[in-house]
Amino acid sequence: MKDIITLAIESSCDETAASVLRNGREILSNVISTQIELHKKFGGVVPEVASRKHLENIDAVVQEALDEANMQFSDIDHIAATYGPGMVGALLVGLSHAKALAYTLDIPLVGVNHIEGHVSANYIEHKDLKPPFITLIVSGGHTHLVEVKDYGEYEILGKTRDDASGEAFDKIARAMGLGYPGGPIIDKLAKEGNKHAIEFPRAYIDEGYDFSFSGLKSAVLNYLNAKKMKNEEIVVEDVAASFQEAVVEVLSTKALKAAKEKGYSTIALAGGVASNSALREKITEMSKSEGIEIKYPSLILCTDNAAMIGCAGYYNFINGRIHDMSLNAVPNLKI
Ligand code: KG4
Ligand code: ZN
């Protein structure tokens, strides 16, 4: 059978990315131009700044992805692009570029849900992975526990009622003056700290599949304020480790509970927070006695990238789920 070549574009947040894939799961190129340095000085992503930077970068990033893959536009069978969720201006840059390419090359356009992309990163990493399985999607904007019933077919079991897990990492890091993005910084600091030093709350740990991280965030902020008021030393490593332990214990417990109760033997982690070393360790450790296998993408595929968008787009394409030129960006797109 003839190979299917996908050109994918991602621009939902602060990474301008393009990738070329063969048959959905083989990466021929994966170019990521990150804007992290640009947004660092603001302590978070500034939407207007992000859109303008995407616009500056998109053409070169797509060209680089083609060059690295040794491909021409004429080799591409279809385009895949993120159309939500994300920041509307940022999404529009990648999607409009994708639409223009699909139109001029006269090839199909496939709009991809960014969250579905994160899940699909696991298909690239683990060539034998097939639905059904449970996925724990943990990123800056999302915390979802989902049954993957088939390619492109999902059932949400639970989600956060307030902050996303990555957002909690970012907010706590900001409160401690550690910089942006907070997740990787806290992950690193926590390695030097005592995770049992401070007992922070684990909301809903034995209750259902929903999550809540705003109470934990307030508890950490209250702890920091109380220490400052009393002029007591704050051991940032201990705060980082204790906070991180509270997050990963809730995430791991609920994901395992879902797999056991719903009868699945595989859990795939997805999204930026899936890079977290404590989460990977804890859930793997807890799953051993349960006979449940934990899978996660390599670090480069956990962060925002276009290869994962191309993989999700490929499965939509071969299943006939394509879009026309009226496709618009949907900032609050649901999975
Ligand atoms: O998936 P992603 O790159 O973008 C979104 O779709 O949101 O996730 C970014 C989030 C940020 O909140 C960042 O702090 C978090 O993932 N993150 C981490 C780690 N690396 C990135 N959180 C905890 N530990 C990490 N090692
Ligand atoms: Zn993401």
TrEMBL record:
Its EC number is 2.3.1.234. The keyword Repeat does not apply. Keywords: Acyltransferase, Cytoplasm, Iron, Metal-binding, Transferase, tRNA processing. Its cofactor is Fe(2+). It catalyses: L-threonylcarbamoyladenylate + adenosine(37) in tRNA = N(6)-L-threonylcarbamoyladenosine(37) in tRNA + AMP + H(+). HAMAP family: TsaD. This is tRNA N6-adenosine threonylcarbamoyltransferase.
